[in-house]
Specification:
Blueprint: H1 3-19, H2 22-27, E1 29-35, E2 38-43, H3 58-73
Antiparallel strand pairs: 1-2
C-alpha cells in the first residue's frame, strides 16, 4: 500500500471510529493528528474533571491515553481493542 493510501486509510478509520465514540466525544477528546500506527489526541480539562487536589483525575488522563492508543491501533483498518495496558 502506498504511503498516501495508508494515510488516507488512517484518516478514514479515525473519522469513522470517532463518529461512534461517545466516550471520547463526551470527554471532549479530539484526534488532532493521525497516521499509520500513530495518533495524537487532546482533551481540555474541565472543572468537573478535577479531583480533590484540583488536578485532573488520573482516570480521565488514562481515558485520553486509551483513546489515543485506540485510534493509533485502528489506523491500519480493521477492528482491534487493547487486552491490557500499563
Amino acid at each position: 500500500m502506498s504511503s498516501d493510501a495508508a494515510q488516507s486509510l488512517a484518516e478514514r478509520s479515525a473519522s469513522a471510529m470517532y463518529a461512534n465514540d461517545r466516550a471520547s466525544q463526551g470527554l471532549g477528546i479530539r484526534v488532532v493528528e493521525v497516521r499509520p500506527g500513530y495518533a495524537k489526541a487532546t482533551m481540555r480539562v474541565r472543572e468537573d474533571m478535577l479531583n480533590g487536589h484540583a488536578a485532573c483525575h488520573g482516570g480521565l488522563i488514562f481515558s485520553l491515553a486509551d483513546s489515543a492508543f485506540a485510534f493509533s491501533c485502528n489506523s491500519h483498518g480493521g477492528t482491534v481493542v487493547a487486552a491490557a495496558a500499563s
